[in-house]
Amino acid sequence: MKISLKSFVLLFAMLFVLLPQVTSASAEPLDEIRQLVRDFYVDDVPESVLSKGTVKEITKHLDPHSVYMSAKEYQGFVNGIEQRIVGIGVVLEEDLKGVKVISVIPEGPAARAEIQPGDVITHVNGKSIVGKSIQTAISLISGEEKTVVTVTINRIGQRDPITKKITREEITLPNVEYEMLGGNIAYIRLNSFAMESSREMNKAIQSLNGADGWIVDLRNNGGGYITAAQDIAGFFPNTVNAFQLREKNSKPMTYPSTIQPRKFNGPTHVLINEYSASASEMVSATVKEQKTATLYGQTSYGKGTMQAMYGFDDGSVLKMTTARFYSPGGQSVDKVGVKPDVITKKEAELEVSHHDQLLKKLKGYKQLPELVNVPVSKKFTVEMNTTMNWKNIDKKTVQLIQLGGQEIGASIKVVNATTVTVVPNKPLIAGSRYVLVIHPLYKNTQNKPMKQGVYLEVSVK
After folding, report:
1. What is 362-460's CATH number, 2.40.320.10, 1.10.760.10, 2.60.40.10, 2.60.40.1220?
2. CATH 2.30.42.10 given to domain 3-172
3. Distance set, CA 394 to CA 135, 284, 331, 398, 411 (Å)
4. Helix-strand-coil percent breakdown of the chain, rounded to 5?
5. Which of 75, 162, 208, 210 has the smallest number of CB atoms closer than 10 Å to its CB?
């Protein structure tokens, strides 16, 4: 069996979306793989390992990201990067007690079956997956569309295991999601570094044109193609270089960012967490080092290696680590991750980032004491220290913005010459935080405008 002339490089991380059922592979190209490992694996491998009798025995002694895949496994792998999947709709990571659910795709089969993040799948169709590789677990949980799989899970706070029967479905995942948050702050979530990520990111930036600030969400993004990392880095202004690669027996090489027609044209934040890996870490490390964005969240996963894909005549593929990547200035990522500029609690990354973006816009405004644990039916009383001309009240004067969300419409009711009441058009959301802004647009009875805007922060019980 000859090695295909076509090979390409990509980044791959520990997060897996369920892929189609794996079938048995044909005879392994053992000799060819031995030579590839000798020539291109990032570290030297002793002959005692290369002399093993199967590819699996060889790759077992390499790093966790080097693996031999059948044609069907490989297609599923690519589908995962491109967000084309058939499965139950969960993202998984390895766990000593099985495989842990990291996130659940909204409205997917697992979500309807009430699977929760943090659940640990221990059995699939009655077969234990404890101690099995995540690829094995995926092959068992995944399958053909409209077939049923039974999973047994352990859940924190539940004494007994929970069994769920779930019908597999084709699941369509958007690669880039975007919206304008309250206060004219643009939010873009990138789920994977796929082939079309650059085009979709450009479309998102164009759609959000005119934003006062930008939030790019790379949380739970496990990576993708190395070229996509170069492309995405190019959307950050003044980000000249994308990353540095160090291959076996070669000098370090620094690769430039891709020049993009549109860029983030305002203060930019990048959100990361412990499951942001590989290409996500490439982009995070470079924008932090070149000071072109501020990182919010928790230290990333620490998967600073690159894999090359070597295809064979039967469609099987060897995915093998051939290099380590660093920031353009040489800062290590592998096994250390990227530390945020602003460390937040888990799940609070977007809220904190949005808060800081809003406050940048309110420079010169006076901060009033925070309101804590208000009811969802809260009405806000605004009292001035002088008599006001409340005629022709401009609704733009008052903004009530949910942090991490949208502006909440509100009506303004005059109480007396110095006081108005701000009444939200719908109940506030329990557990959420808001910023109430009073812009200096009112005039007093002497026709003099307010000297200073004010704002206050609100938490809902």
Report:
1. 2.60.40.1220
2. yes
3. 59, 41, 51, 8, 11
4. 20, 35, 45
5. 210
Q: What is the mean pLDDT of residues 350-362?
A: 97
What is the 8-class DSSP label of residue 118?
A: T
Q: Each residue of 105-141: pLDDT tens digit?
A: 888 999 999 999 889 999 999 999 998 877 788 889 9
Asked whether 379 and 423 are in contact (CB, 8 A), the reply is yes
Q: What confidence score (pLDDT) does residue 113 get?
A: 96
∠116-120-125 over CA atoms, to 5°? 100
The DSSP-derived string for 88-113 is SSEEEEEETTEEEEEEE-TTSHHHHT
Angle at 95 (CA atoms; ends 305, 43), nearest 5 degrees: 25
**The predicted structure's pLDDT at residue 7:** 40
Structure confidence at residue 201 (pLDDT): 98
pLDDT at 106: 83
Which three-class secondary structure state does DSSP give residue 418?
coil
One-letter amino acid for residue 76 of the chain: G
- CA-CA distance, 325 to 245, in Å (whole number)? 4
Distance, in Å, from the CA atom of 227 to the CA atom of 399, rounded to the nearest integer, reads 41
